[in-house]
Structure formats: C-alpha cells, structure tokens
Amino acid sequence: MDGSRRQFLAAAGAGLASLAGCTAPEGDPSVAGLDAPDDQPFAELYEAASPSVVRLRVYDSRGVLAEGSGWLYDDGVLVTNAHVVAGGETVRAQFANGDWVTAELLGSDPYSDLAALAVEPPMDATPLPLLDEQPRVGTRVAAAGAPLGLEGSLTTGVVSGVNRTISSVRNFTISGAIQTDAAVNPGNSGGPLLTLEGTVAGVITQAGGENIGFAVSSALTERVIPELVETGSYQHSYLGVRILPVTPLLADANGLDDARGVYLAAVPAGSPADGVLQGGTETVSVGGSPQPTGGDVIVALDGTTIDTTGQLGTYLALETSPGDTVGVTVIRDGEEQTVEVTLGTRPDPR
C-alpha cells in the first residue's frame, strides 16, 4: 500500500464530511447537487480498495464450477461466500493487477455463508478493515467485485436496512444482514460492501430483488472468519426451538398486550430447550384464522429485549457461544418469568 492510499483510508471520512458542508464559491462551474471534478469519493474509494478485491474462479473435474468475488481480510487470507467455493476442487483468484494465483480453502461455514482462503497477494494488496459498528440506514456504500465475471467493478448506493433476517443460497437463516440498493448481480457474491472510509460493512451474499441486495454483517464476519482460519469450521449457538413472529392475531389468541416477542411453536425432544421452554399445544380461531396457543413467548435474553425473530437470531449469533447459559424471559400463561437454558451447538447441516 503506498502512502497516498494509507492517507485516504485513514482520513477520507473527515475529508468527505467537510466537503459535504461546503458551498461552491461564486463562479464555480459545478452544478448544484453534482460532484465537482475534485470531489469524487467513489473514485477515490475504488483506487484505494480495488487492489485488495479479487475475482474468483472455482473449478471441479469438469471445468469452471462457479465464479465470485472476494477480498483480503488479513495478510494472506481472503474472504468470500461459502456457496461460491462449495464443491470446488481448485480456486484461483485474480487481483487488480491481472495476476491469477491459486487459493487454498482454509474453512467454510454454510450457516453464515462465509469462507476463508489462503493466498499469496501482490505487494499492493493490503487487508481491508471491518466496520466496527452497525452502519446507519442511509450510509453511502459501494459493492466491489466481479459481477457476471466483469472484474474490477464497482456499484454504488446506500444502506437500505439493517438487522435483516435472510435465507442463504442454501436455505439457512442468516441474522443481522445488511440490505443495500447498490446493484448486486451473480459474481458479486463474496465481495465487500464498502463504506466511503474504505471499511467493510458486510460481505455480499445475494440479491433479493430489484434494487435489493444483502450482505453478511461485519460483526458476524469478525466472529466467524478467525475460527475458520484457525480450525476450519465455526460452531453456532443453538437454542433448539421452532419459532413464529408474534402477529396481532397471534397476540389476541394468546392474550398478549402487545404484538411483540417470539412465539415458540414447538420445542423438539432432546433440544437444549427441551424441558425448560414450552411449545404450543392448541390452535384457536381468531377472525377466521387459525392461531397457535399455549407456547412460551420469548421477550428477552439475558435482559436484552427481544421483539422480533430477527433480534433473537442476531443476539444468539453475535452475543453467545455454544455452552453458554442464558436467561430466557418468557410470557407463559399470562405471566412473565425467566428460566435458564444452556445453549447447544447448531447441528451439522449435512
């Protein structure tokens, strides 16, 4: 990384903030609302970050199996999506200078759709830092990678939503995902969603529709990737319950004051919650719609309010580990009480 690139990644945020508050002097030819020639934050971002973003090509015995993107997380470690490298025998990475190098799979986690690869990067490729807090909705971001195999691409937008619960390409639930309107296409998978400061807000994982893309959060990435590098796998906390969101109709059926919390539809035998938490037992009709009743409604974990299924998943993913004992506050038979559950390990998806 040369001196100018270091200076950009360290100081771009402050510089952009000051530019945003400036007014053009009289006689300035720039048009209001458009960037002046010397105010091109996305161009500067691309120049600074592109040496650390790669195009990936994955091969099996029949030839090219998949293509995707990745980025340099640490010295010699690339991050991408698990679904990009799944089933591959050989992975090659193309850096911004055009060179192709062989990458070795260190580990992958289908539940978070993250994978770590070992690689020898060129001298100008340096690790991209992870954002250390959740981005605000409206934060300007850019998706870098190789959509449709077009290496060195950058699309721009904003953070459209946070704390999204999405289904991965393999139909596993990922909590705390980042939503963006930056264009995301096949081949972007595994690339970084970058802030203007050059930090990674998330790992692009899929498109959800027109102007809707999703990224695995930086917080989950920071938990998973070091374990993949060290051990080749990652163990997720497991409560072992089947859940439903609390809708107004479900709240009416269960005598709840508010439509908030997470309803336990079932507690399978042998799960960590078996014998501690209570699943639904009956069904009643509310306004002509069948609604389950009799199950616990989770409203807090270790004192942290849980209003939605997404909040439950995010707390378990980011704040707990297998073997932890958590205090689960539930509404049961109209009364609030707290019980303790020792978390297990999420079963092997195979």
Automatic annotation (TrEMBL):
Name assigned to this protein: S1-C subfamily serine protease
For this UniProt record, give its keywords in alphabetical order, as a comma-separated list.
Answer: Hydrolase, Protease
Q: Mind listing the GO molecular function terms for this protein? A: serine-type endopeptidase activity
Q: Which domain of life is it from?
A: Archaea
> Is the keyword Protease assigned to this protein?
yes
Please tell me the species this chain comes from.
Answer: Halolamina salifodinae
Single Gene Ontology BP annotation: proteolysis
Q: Where is the PDZ domain?
A: 238-343
InterPro entries per the record? Chloro_Bact_Ser_Proteases, PDZ, PDZ_sf, Peptidase_S1_PA, Peptidase_S1C, TAT_signal
